[in-house]
Amino acid sequence: MNTGQDGALESPGLPPQRLGSLLGHYERVTPPTAVVYRVSCGPHQQTGVVLEVPVEYYRAGRIKPHEATAADRERRLLLFTETTGVERMPVMLAHAPRTALRSLLQEVTAGPPRLQRSFADGSVHTVWVSADPLLSEAVQREASQLESLYIADGHHRMATAVRYAERRRQLGPDHPSAFTMAVLFPSDELRVRGYRRLLRIQPGVSDSEVLTALAALPVTAWLEATTDRFTAPRSVLIGLDNRNYRLWLRGTRGDPRSALDAVLLQERVIPGIADKAVPVPAGREQIDERVLSLEPHPPTIEQIMAVSDANMLLPPKSTWFDPKVRPGLIVRELR
């Protein structure tokens, strides 16, 4: 594991062939050490421990996903990893709060940080490294007691690590390829945002026709105009022609997945108005086109963990954890 003051591997545009040569910009961290990563954004902060976790945890169900992955993105990430032999950022895992572990991380963060960087989005990323063997071993021991780890961000990175490890099973369970880099945050420190969808309104369809179609959906309780931009449970915030509306959803019962607003939006609202508006691929919206925005109320971290515990998956982009870890600050060699 390596920490880099200048984030040499941070840029996603660097050719994979060059990335391996940039490891000289990083300071190697050798065990026994405790690496603590804090992300701050305004009054919010979350503090976690960076570890090498066995990929076998994922196969055994100890690391739990909540979203499906796209095969094409997995393939690109695997190619990157195979080419460079480097993990550029940790998988972000959530765990049930553990008082003893939190206290140990406070001991580490009482000292001076190894690096600190600020970014344009307002986030500040700080890393501490403790070489105290007793403290480091205590952190490792407490972290090993966590029964379940939930993927918050990094489903594709986790899936890539599994595929990378499967190709190297013959190297044994102690080889670096049998592990992946992760940062473990307590669930009560994580913040979940709503993930907005953009739909392109079909030519010839008026705003009133779109609103009428939304109001007529079986899942709709009622539709109303609103002047605020805040989401609320069991509702979807709608933006149309510089006006805001709130679509209230009918309550549903059943499994932890089907009751989530993000799932109702993706599986019952958007398909129900497909003749009026169609999803816009990310990054491809045009300035001159008419767009409908739909933002569901975000699920709580407890709801997300319940979905994972039930071995269910949400639609892609159902969750948005903010802030996230940054690429290139801490990297890990796999060879």
From TrEMBL:
| Region spans: Disordered | 1-20
InterPro entries from the xrefs?
Answer: UCP033563
The organism sits in which domain of life? Answer: Bacteria
- The name on file for this protein is DUF1015 domain-containing protein
